[in-house]
From TrEMBL:
It comes from Dyadobacter helix. PANTHER family: PTS-DEPENDENT DIHYDROXYACETONE KINASE OPERON REGULATORY PROTEIN-RELATED, TRANSCRIPTIONAL REGULATORY PROTEIN. This is Transcriptional regulatory protein ZraR. The modification 4-aspartylphosphate is found at D54. InterPro entries: AAA+_ATPase, AAA_lid_NorR, CheY-like_superfamily, Homeodomain-like_sf, P-loop_NTPase, Sig_transdc_resp-reg_receiver, Sigma_54_int, Sigma_54_int_dom_ATP-bd_1. SMART domains: AAA, REC. Residues 154-383 form the Sigma-54 factor interaction domain.
Length: 467
C-alpha cells in the first residue's frame, strides 16, 4: 500500500522530482514545504505517514530542528542531504532518524529507504518502541522462551538473552536483513545460525564470511567470485560466497571491518540482488538473505567515514543486540554447568563440582571475552583440577579493560579476588602510579589513601611507585 509522504525541501526542482518518483511508485505526496515554519503549518492540517527531510532549508531553521517535533508526533523521517560532512551527520544522528540519503541518489534508493523506514516504524510501534534501537524495555518481559531445537544450543534464561531470542524468532521467517550487535564472544554467530534454521531457507546453505579474516585485496574475489584469467593468479574460475549462498543465507561477520570499496559493491548486491563475477560480463541473479554482525559501534564508524551510511541503513533494517555476559550474570551458573558437563568428558577427568566461592568469582568477573572466554576458562580448570571440586579460578588480569569501566566495576565488585584484579589492572595501566593525575586511584575513582589501604589489605606487593 502506498505511503502518504510529506516533503520538506527548499529546492523546487528536487522536490518536484521527488514527487514524481513517489507518485510513479504508488505513494502520495501530502505536501511540500520549503522551511520549518511552513512544514509545521502543513503538518498540523494533514498527518503524513513519513517525512523526507532536507537538512538545509529556507530560513534560519534546519531539518535537524524539525526532527524532535516529528519524533514527538511519532512520525518517521528520513534525512535527504547533499552534505555528508561528519559534523552535520553528528548533529543529525542525535535526532535518531529512520534513514539517511545522500544526494544525489537514485530513484531506487529512495524507494528502498522508504520501505525500510516504514517497516521499522511499524515494527517499533507494534512493540511499543519509538525507534528500533531504543532499549526495548517492554520486550524484556518476554512472553516465553522459544523451545525450538535451534535455540536449545543457546544456554541461558536472563531477560536480556530471552529478549534477543524473541526478536530472532520473530524475524527468522521473514526475508528481512538482520544486523546482530554485541561484543566478541557473546554468541552472535549462534543467533545467526538459529535465524537461518528457523527460516524457510533452512534446507539451503548458510554461508559464513568473516570479513576481518580475509585480506582486503582478496575479499572481493572471495565474495563475488571471479572468472578464469580475471587477474594474474586467477587460474581457475571461482564461485564466490554470495553465489554459494544461493537460495539460502549469507552471514557477514565483522561487517565493520569491510573495506569501503567493497562496501560500495556490497550495497549494490543487497539492493539489486545481483552481481557479476570479477572479470565476468554475465549478471547473476541472487536469492539470498543477509545477516550481518559486528562488535563495533557502526554509528561511530559511519561518522568517522569508515562505514557507508547508506549501507548502514540497508543492513540495519532489524537489529538484535546481545548483551555482554557481565550484564546478564544470571546466565553464568547455567553456562558454567553446561560447559562443565561438556568438558568433563575429557580423558582421565571426572565430572566436577564448583565451590560456591569459585562460582561467585566467576559471576563477578568482567568477562571481556564473554561466553567464549567463560568456556575456555572452564575447560582449562577442568584439565588443571584433579580432584572432584574446583575451588578457585585463576582469572586473567585484563589490561584492556576500558578505564571508565574500572571505577564502575570497583563499586560493583566486592569480593577480594575481583577487587584485587581491578586494582592490578588500574596499576598496570598507570605504570604503577597510585595517586595524582593518571594514577590508579583516579582511574578507580577512589581517594589514594583508600587505595593504598586496600592494596595493603589485599596483599598487593608494594613494588609500585607512589606518584
Ligand atoms: N548462550 C550461549 N550458550 C552456549 N554457548 C554459547 C552461548 N553464547 C556463546 N556461546 C559459545 O561461545 C562461543 C562464542 O560464540 P559466538 O562465536 O557465537 O560469538 P560471537 O559473538 O559471534 O563472537 P565474535 O564476535 O568473536 O565472532 C561459541 O563457542 C559459542 O558456542
Amino acid at each position: 500500500m502506498g505511503l502518504k509522504v510529506f516533503i520538506v525541501e527548499d529546492q523546487f526542482i528536487e522536490a518536484h522530482d521527488l514527487q514524481i518518483i513517489l507518485e510513479t511508485a504508488g505513494h502520495s505526496v501530502s505536501g511540500i514545504a520549503k522551511s520549518v515554519p511552513a512544514a509545521l503549518d502543513l503538518l498540523q492540517s494533514d498527518r503524513p505517514d513519513i517525512v523526507l527531510l532536507d537538512i538545509f532549508l529556507k530560513g534560519n531553521q534546519t531539518g535537524v530542528d524539525l526532527a524532535p517535533v516529528l519524533t514527538t508526533a511519532n512520525i518517521p523521517f528520513i534525512y535527504i542531504s547533499a552534505n555528508s560532512d561528519p559534523l552535520t551527520f553528528e548533529a543529525a544522528k542525535t535526532t535518531r532518524p529512520d534513514g539517511f540519503l545522500i544526494k544525489p541518489f537514485r530513484q531506487r534508493d529512495i524507494l528502498v529507504a522508504l520501505d525500510i523506514a516504514a517497516y521499522r516504524h511499524r515494527y517499533a510501534n507494534a512493540h511499543g518502541l519509538r525507534h528500533q534501537d531504543a532499549v526495548p524495555d517492554k520486550l524484556i518481559e518476554v512472553r516465553k522462551r522459544d523451545t525450538s531445537i535451534e535455540f536449545q544450543q543457546i544456554i541461558g534464561s536472563s531477560p536480556k538473552l530471552l529478549q534477543a531470542l524473541d526478536l530472532a524468532s520473530q524475524v527468522a521467517p521473514t526475508d528481512t536483513s538482520v544486523l546482530i550487535l554485541g561484543e566478541t564472544g557473546v554468541g552472535k554467530e549462534g543467533i545467526a545460525k538459529a535465524i537461518h534454521h528457523l527460516s524457510k531457507r533452512k534446507h539451503k546453505p548458510l554461508i559464513k564470511v568473516n570479513c576481518a579474516a580475509i585480506p582486503p585485496n582478496l575479499i572481493e574475489s572471495e565474495l563475488f567470485g571471479h572468472e578464469r584469467g580475471a587477474f594474474s593468479g586467477a587460474m581457475e574460475k571461482r564461485i564466490g560466497k554470495f553465489e554459494q549462498a544461493q537460495g539460502g543465507t549469507i552471514f557477514l561477520d565483522e561487517i565493520g571491518e569491510m573495506p569501503l570499496e567493497t562496501q560500495t559493491k556490497l550495497l549494490r548486491v543487497i539492493q539489486e540482488k545481483e552481481l557479476e563475477r570479477i572479470g565476468g560480463r554475465t549478471t547473476i541473479k541472487l536469492d539470498i538473505r543477509f545477516i550481518t554482525a559486528t562488535n563495533r559501534n557502526l554509528y561511530k564508524e559511519v561518522s568517522a567515514g569508515r562505514f557507508r551510511i547508506d549501507l548502514y541503513y540497508r543492513i540495519n533494517v532489524f537489529s538484535i543486540t546481545l548483551a555482554p555476559l557481565r550484564d546478564r550474570t544470571e546466565d553464568i551458573p547455567t553456562l558454567v554447568n553446561h560447559f562443565l558437563s561438556k568438558h568433563a568428558g575429557l580423558p582421565g577427568r571426572s565430572i566436577k563440582k564448583i565451590s560456591p566461592q569459585a562460582m561467585e568469582t566467576l559471576v563477578r568477573y568482567f568477562w571481556p571475552g564473554n561466553v567464549r572466554e567463560l568456556e575456555n576458562i572452564i575447560e582449562r580448570q577442568v584439565i588443571l583440577t584433579s580432584s572432584e571440586l574446583i575451588s578457585s579460578f585463576d582469572l586473567p588480569v585484563d589490561e584492556n579493560m576500558p578505564e571508565d569501566n574500572l571505577a564502575n566495576s570497583l563499586k560493583l565488585k566486592s569480593t577480594s579476588d575481583s577487587e584485587k584484579q581491578l586494582i592490578l589492572v588500574a596499576l598496570t595501566k598507570s605504570n604503577g602510579k597510585v595517586s595524582g593525575k593518571g594514577g590508579a586511584a583516579e582511574m578507580l575513582n577512589i581517594p589514594a589513601p583508600t587505595l593504598v589501604s586496600k592494596m595493603k589489605k589485599l596483599g598487593i606487593n608494594w613494588r609500585f611507585v607512589v606518584g
